Structures are given as structure tokens and as C-alpha cells.
Amino acid sequence: MSKAENMLAILLLLRSRERLTARQLAKELEIHVRTVYRLIDALCMSGVPVVSETGRNGGYYIPDHFKLEPLFFDPEEQKALLQAARFARDSGYPHEAALARAVAKIKRYAGEEQAKRLEAQEAGLEAAHPPMDAELKARLAMLEKATDAARSVEIRYEAGYSEATSKRLFDPYGLVNWKGKWYAAGYCHLRGEIRHFRVDRIRGLRLTGQTFARPPHFSARQSLLENLLPGMEGGDEEHLVPVYIEGPPSALDDLCGHWLFARALKERTENQAHFRMDEHSLYLNAPYYLLSFGGKIRIAHPPELRECMAEIAESLLRYYRS
Q1: Which of 3, 12, 164, 165 is least buried, going by the fewest C-beta atoms within 10 A?
Q2: What's the rounded Cα separation, in Å, for the pair 281 and 275?
Q3: Cβ-contact 44, 50 below 8 angstroms
Q4: In this structure, are strands 151-158 and 202-211 parallel, antiparallel, or unpaired?
């Protein structure tokens, strides 16, 4: 039997009898007594209150107040777990081997018909992500390990499209997958502030012996979004610019569903959308996305946004004609 099966067997034996010694458990399960000790330790680490008493009538037992609730998943729960695991694997989840073992445990005791149903349900929902190489997965796994252990890492980071790298001491607080890219959020000792590093641009990564205290309630996702959208979370409405964009409903549907515009939407009619945006996002990020609509939309307000888009379009025209 596997380790998990032996742990479950010991748990059921201790629940069904008053107390058992390590030798008695070893004999029941046909395993070595040292294996019993390791399995008991594993049970204790998982939260089971196994009590050990020495002496003539000693042995292991579980207190009466401990309730062993059976862990069964109904069909909908099984489907949800398998499909969630599929999403995680497709996104480059760094602990794919452990995830596969967990999924295998769900499938192990399924009947033939149930197994076929589970396989079909697992294959029926997929996520398309760019392929991830082994080196990137290894970096993700090391960053997750450092996050879990609260250990600082030394990284060599390539910012933008330059090949120049900078060495930084970094405290990883969390990982977040954003638009198909993995980001590590945490404290950068070089800059003295919270920074967000794209994992695929980390060229060197080394665990250090230095530890850190992760801020309570820190959210890597929220931190990244606030960095991308300064002033959007609880910002002063008086300093936000009103933006009116007109176009056919299908184009406005896509526009209002975009991560930048969805958070700024104030009012929507069939052929017009009203947003309120900070100037940083409006003139730095928005124009490039708006240009992808071509002539399908019209900027009704502000005129400065139209001028900004025209300047970008003229600059691109000069670049590609040169």
C-alpha cells in the first residue's frame, strides 16, 4: 500500500480499538515497525491528535473528542477539482507533479464508468497559455519555495527589452499570473519599495540565508493591479478624467471587457461608454489598445486623447516607412 493508504489504515485501526502498540500496528499492516513510527509522525503533522503512552498497558490511541469525518467528493466537486487542476497545469503551475498525484487519488477508486466520465470532464475544459520551458518552471518553483519559507533571493533582472541586467536582493511576498505572464511581487532592497518582476525576465536566481517578515494581508494580485492602475483604487474622483467613446455595441463590448477600461467604466449605453480614468493610464496605456480598434470606435472626449493617438499613429507610420 502507499503511504497515504497506510496512514488511513492506521487511523481507522486506532479509531476502532482502545489502543495499539507500534508492533501491533506493524503486524496488522505487514510493515516494519520503523515505518509505523514515520506514519504516526505524518498523521500528527496532518493534524490528527495521536496520543502515545508508555508502560505495560501503553500504546497509541486517539482521544474520543476527535471526530473523523469521511472525505468524499460528489460528482460536481470531482469535476470542479479536476478542471481546476487542468487550469493550474496549463498556466505553468510549478508543483505539477504534486498536483498530478492529488488528481490520481481522486481517480484511483473510481469505477470503470466513473473513470471514463472523469476523463471526459477533465478534457472538456482547457486554458490556452504560451508554452513554458523547464527553466521558467524551475524559477517559479524556487520563488514559490522562497515565498513559503520567507527567504530572500538574489536575482539578476532584465528590465524591458534591454539585455542589460541588474542584481537585486528581493523578498518575494507572492506570485501572480497576469495575462499569461507570471510576476513575483515583493520588496526590492535596491529600490527600497514594493516591486513586481516578470519571472521570464529573471536571468539568475539564488536563495539566500536572509529571511523576511511578509506584511499581513498582502495580496500580490492587488499590489500588481494598483501598480498598473495608479489612482484607480479609492482614488479622488475629482482628479480622474472623463472619457467618452462611441462605437457599435460589439466593439464597445470588447472595450468594456478589457482589464483597463472595465475598472474605469461609469456608464454604458448601446453606442457610447463613459469612463473616468487617471491621466497616467489614459495617455500611457489606453491609446495603444484603442488603436487596435482602427476606425470602429470614435473618441468623443477628451480631444487630448485623440491628439495623443494621432501622434502615436504618425510616429509608427514614420518608423515603418523609414
Answers
A1: 164
A2: 12
A3: yes
A4: antiparallel
